[in-house]
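Could someone model NAP with this protein?
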Amino acid sequence: MRNVLVTGAGSGIGRATAEAFVHAGAAVVAGMRDPATSQPIAGAESITLDVSDDASVALALEGRPAFDVVVNNAGISLSGPVETIAMDLARRQFETNYWGAMRVVRAVLPAMRAKRAGIIINVSTVGGRTPARGYHAFYQGSKHALRALSEALVWELEPFGVRVALVEPGFVATNIFDRGGYEDPPPPSPYSEDEAWVRRFFLAGAAAQAIPASRVAEEIVAVASQERPLLHHPVGADAIAGVAAAQTLSFEDWYESAVARVVSMVGPRPEPAKAGPSD
Ligand SMILES: NC(=O)c1ccc[n+]([C@@H]2O[C@H](COP(=O)([O-])OP(=O)(O)OC[C@H]3O[C@@H](n4cnc5c(N)ncnc54)[C@H](OP(=O)(O)O)[C@@H]3O)[C@@H](O)[C@H]2O)c1
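Reply:
Sure, complex below.
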């Protein structure tokens, strides 16, 4: 565990992970969209790395010596109805969480493949294993796609000795929901009451069940040192339970239990306002 890259290292899980690797004695490159606006991480090299920007990724990573560990952590969580979410928001979700990870993977792989060593750890979510909740088609869609990318990479990289793992937390105590605007009322739409109800569930779930970011960081550092890591690493009791439910329930049973869980945490589901198709 010598050269480590962590993306989205300015805050939350990324920062905790960069700090944990420094603590473990690694040489850490901490990718941040704007290092000038983030607190430096003692013992790490902070670099400008916007994973949604081809030129930024190329400038930051091409030609660097092989990383032993690459943690694709940068991510955003936005909520919105399929019918009315602004297209640019839906696209931004994939641009960061999916295409961003792919850009980084493509930039780091030539050196890792040549060295025939290393591990790529993609930070997903339990929502990348479970069916999508309402208003999370794009967040969860991006993480389901990240899972497919990771599965394909296991196949493609096995002959080159490069390992791949997914870390899949449940609720983690970070500012991801504030940054995604969950505290605000959703934009007006025929769905806004229902969407607000789901947003309240996420805020309540995070308040009640979140584990510290350092717990996810510990898991990432542990996975990085494993000779033959499994692909999937759910982190936190809610993530482990969520994966088990997704594996055992039909979609219909899962849906019923998921709605019941929201009701139990934030009260009854609102009735849609009576209105015509064009309201
Ligand atoms: N918190 C949870 O409950 C939870 C649960 C499961 C999975 N996750 C996953 O954990 C990862 C980290 O999230 P977090 O909870 O730690 O939230 P966070 O504190 O908001 O951290 C996200 C980080 O990603 C960075 N980022 C966003 N867009 C970027 C881009 N285009 N290029 C580079 N960096 C970018 C942000 O940088 P800026 O500071 O510049 O915005 C920020 O440092 C995400 O992939 C998320 O999906 C979180």
